[in-house]
Specification:
Number of strands of chain A: 11
Helix content of chain A: 40-55%
Strand content of chain B: 25-35%
CATH topology of the largest domain in chain A: Heat Shock Protein 90
Mean pLDDT of chain B: 81
Low-confidence stretches of chain A: 350-354
Shape of chain A: elongated
Structural class of chain B: alpha+beta
CATH architecture of the largest domain in chain A: 2-Layer Sandwich
Number of domains of chain B: 1
Order of helices and strands of chain B: HEEEHEHHEEHEE
CATH topology of chain B: Beta-Lactamase
Largest sheet of chain B: 6 strands, antiparallel
Helix content of chain B: 25-40%
Strand order of the largest sheet of chain B: 3-2-1-6-5-4
Number of helices of chain B: 5
Distance between the termini of chain A: 70 Å
Order of helices and strands of chain A: HEEHHEEEEHHHHEHEEHEEH
Shape of chain B: globular
CATH superfamily of the largest domain in chain A: Histidine kinase-like ATPase, C-terminal domain
CATH superfamily of chain B: GAF domain
Distance between the termini of chain B: 41 Å
Number of helices of chain A: 10
CATH architecture of chain B: 2-Layer Sandwich
CATH class of the largest domain in chain A: Alpha Beta
Strand content of chain A: 15-25%
Strand order of the largest sheet of chain A: 2-1-6-5-4-3
Number of domains of chain A: 3
Radius of gyration of chain B: 15 Å
Oligomer: heterodimer
Largest interface: A-B, 31 and 29 residues
Low-confidence stretches of chain B: 160-169
Radius of gyration of chain A: 32 Å
Mean pLDDT of chain A: 86
Chain lengths: ~350, ~170
């Protein structure tokens, strides 16, 4: 029995000495009783000294906050002095290390000696896990991007095959048939039908081209491109758009115009798909060196934290696009409170600084 | 004298009462000034007129698909056959809250000139049998359309357009 306890003691000592986990023991007053070699390696020598002397808030010099439900880095309700120590059985904390800068750690902080109120603070480096997670996230995003690209190609290819090629074939059949028609009237009738086919074909090609990239955006600017886009939306989906703009014919960098146009397009499509509304409001205006776009509906809304109904890529894409032009993108929504998408892009002088 | 308009309306009212559909609608090609637009023109049992504003693109939506392919379309259960994600591509289904539909091409002189839609606001009400019944009702034409999928050329039956395939529906 005694040997077993001895063995355990020696194992615990070895763990303390050789573990890669940093271990701190604090007494009831918050003074560090013991700090293992792994911990010594990460904490600044000056802080270490103060810790052992029991200087008040010595750890705070290294600590960069822990992650709570609401914040990534916070000092609110600090784990060292919390009135609910049970909450800190496992949490994430950021420490300024001696030579590696700020590093994320998984931490536990709990009482091990109830008689004397001694607590242990253990830290495990999370950098590697974070990197793996990030890579996983990137891979997944890349997969989504490739998939979206392929889907778009599929759509275009289909449109060409089913739309353009089909109509052209039918016109061709008509023209072939004309060669064998005996009377002028019959030929005229056929010609008329062919004309219809060709007109439809022209429409199809125009639609396809505008959907890919509206020429109006390059030639006439945002306002004109928006107006024709909204007209198309009204025609195809029966959603009317109340559009107010004070930018008139003003032009911006092609990058900015594209981002604003695409964000608006995506926001409108979301409204069509999910909001269950007949009207959407779109505002486009300049305010203090920023170009602002607001897309607002009074539809059913959604909870921002909920799992997205679609892929969730739409919102992600809008945010990504905004970042390209140093824009500020935000979505506000709530169940039956409607949804508002706002994009602010710095233009003019502000942009140069950005 | 009955106008074209009254004729269509009377005929679709009759189709609705015989089939028991919640909605019957007819889409026709509008050829004003070289613009050949396909729109829902007549309806019986509709909740509102919102869907009549929509210009249908050939190959898109219920009417667009039927118009382009010249083939009947049957969606017994919309919730099963159309993903929620894609429902917005079929405005008439959402606007009129349809759950089960069938659509037929309307022929005139060997060409598709319009689309007839029958829909229910309940799941699995439209069946192949009912769609057949609808087809029989319009075989002799509707409104000013002759209903002829085949035309006579020099006394021979000729099908003017051979559609390539229908795998794209």
């Amino acid at each position: 029995m005694a040997t077993k306890k001895n063995q355990l003691n020696s194992l615990m000592m070895k763990t303390y000495e050789n573990s890669t986990e940093a271990i701190f023991f604090f007494d009831i007053e918050g003074k560090a009783i013991a700090i293992n070699p792994a911990a010594e390696k990460i904490v600044d020598p000056e802080v270490l000294k103060q810790l052992l002397q029991g200087a008040e808030q010595a750890l705070c010099q290294s600590c960069r906050g822990y992650t709570s439900d609401t914040d990534l880095h916070t000092c609110l309700n600090c784990y060292l002095s919390s009135s609910h120590p049970d909450d800190f059985s496992s949490f994430q904390v950021y420490l300024e290390t001696k030579d590696k800068g700020v590093v994320p750690y998984t931490a536990t902080f709990h009482t091990v000696d109830f008689e004397n109120g001694v607590r242990v603070f253990m830290l495990r480096n999370m950098t590697k896990q974070f990197k793996t997670q990030e890579r996983l996230y990137q891979n997944r995003m890349m997969k989504h991007v490739i998939e979206a690209q392929e889907n778009e190609r599929k759509r275009i290819s289909r449109e060409l095959h089913d739309g353009v090629a089909q109509e052209l074939l039918s016109a061709l059949v008509d023209i072939r048939g004309m060669k064998y028609m005996p009377s002028k009237e019959e030929i005229l009738k056929k010609m008329k039908q062919t004309e219809v086919t060709m007109t439809r074909l022209l429409d199809d090609i125009r639609n396809l081209s505008v959907e890919l990239r509206p020429a109006a955006l390059d030639d006439l600017g945002l306002e004109a491109a928006f107006r024709s886009h909204f007209k198309r939306i009204e025609k195809s989906y029966g959603l009317s758009v109340e559009f107010r703009s004070d930018i008139s014919k003003k032009r911006y960098g092609s990058e900015i115009e594209t981002v604003v146009y695409r964000v608006c397009q995506e926001a409108l499509l979301n409204a069509i798909k999910y909001a269950q509304v007949e009207v959407v409001k779109v505002f486009l205006f300049e305010e203090g060196n920023t170009l602002q776009l607001i897309v607002q509906d009074e539809g059913i809304g959604f909870k921002l934290v909920d799992k997205p109904l679609g892929t969730g890529l739409g919102l992600f894409g809008m945010r990504e696009r905004s970042e390209i032009v140093y824009g500020d993108f935000d979505v506000t929504s709530g169940i039956s409170k409607g949804t508002r998408v706002r994009l602010k892009v710095p233009v003019g002088d502000l942009r140069k600084e950005g | 004298m009955t106008t074209n308009k009254d004729e269509y309306q009377l005929e679709i009212e009759l189709i609705r009462s015989t089939t028991g559909c919640d909605l019957i609608a007819v889409a026709l090609v509008d050829n004003a000034e070289n613009q050949f637009e396909l729109k829902w023109k007549y309806a019986s049992g509709n909740l509102n007129n919102r869907f009549k504003q929509i210009v249908l693109q050939s190959g898109r939506g219920v009417a667009g698909i039927v118009f382009k392919t010249g083939k009947p379309l049957l969606l017994e259960s919309i919730s099963e056959s159309v993903e929620n994600e894609n429902l917005f591509n079929y405005p008439i289904l959402t606007f009129e809250k349809l759950e089960s539909i069938g659509a037929l091409p309307l022929w005139h002189e060997g060409r598709v000139a319009g689309v007839l839609l029958g829909g229910f606001r309940e799941d699995r009400m439209m069946t192949e049998k009912l769609l057949h019944h609808m087809l029989e009702m319009i075989e002799q034409g509707i409104g000013n359309l002759d209903g002829k999928e085949w035309v006579l050329v020099d006394g021979y039956k000729e099908k003017p357009i051979e559609f390539l395939n229908d795998e794209n529906v």
